[in-house]
Amino acid sequence: MRYIKYLFLAALAVILISVALANRGTVTLNTLPEGLREMPGMGVASYSIELPLYLVIFIGIAAGLLIGFVWEYLREIKHRSMASRKAREARELEREVKRLKAQKNEGKDEVLALLDETG
């Protein structure tokens, strides 16, 4: 299984390197389109930067993964809180069962109490 993981990672590295080598040209990224940039007051938010295309692609993939992870984390909050609440209830019920068994076996012989606990 470990070799399959290494083989997959090596194939992924080859693919990423080939994408990077094939897309080395620079592109200009703008925060606003030209029409909005010329409107009064919008010049403050207008930035542009020149980057290689492969870097733009990789940043886009990383941003998409990050957004997906955050979205999934927020979506699962209710399930995690319910699971922790159920685990807490189970621990409380186990403590209560132990307490009731100890109460039931209070005056008995220790051997008989152990036999009662096992089944």
Characterise this structure.
- It holds the Pfam family LapA_dom.
- Residues 48-97 form the Lipopolysaccharide assembly protein A domain.
- Keywords: Cell membrane, Coiled coil, Isomerase, Membrane, Transmembrane, Transmembrane helix.
- This is Phosphoribosylanthranilate isomerase.
- It comes from Pseudaestuariivita atlantica.
- The two termini are 42 Å apart.
- The model has no long low-confidence stretch (mean pLDDT 87).
- The protein has 119 residues and is mainly α.
- It has a domain at 2-75.
- Helices cover 71% and strands 8% of the residues.
- The protein has a two-stranded antiparallel sheet.
- It has helices spanning 2-22, 34-37, 53-75, 77-104, 110-118; strands spanning 26-30, 48-52.
The strand count comes to 2
| Arrangement of strands in the largest sheet | 1-2
The quaternary structure here is single chain
Q: Indicate the percent of residues in helices.
A: over 70%
**Unreliable spans:** none
Principal-axis shape: elongated
Largest sheet: 2 strands, antiparallel
H/I helix tally: 5
* Strand/helix succession: HEHEHHH
Report the β-strand fraction as a percent range. 5-15%
Structural class: mainly alpha
Radius of gyration: 31 Å
> In whole angstroms, how far apart are the ends?
42 Å
Q: Calculate the mean pLDDT score and round it.
A: 87
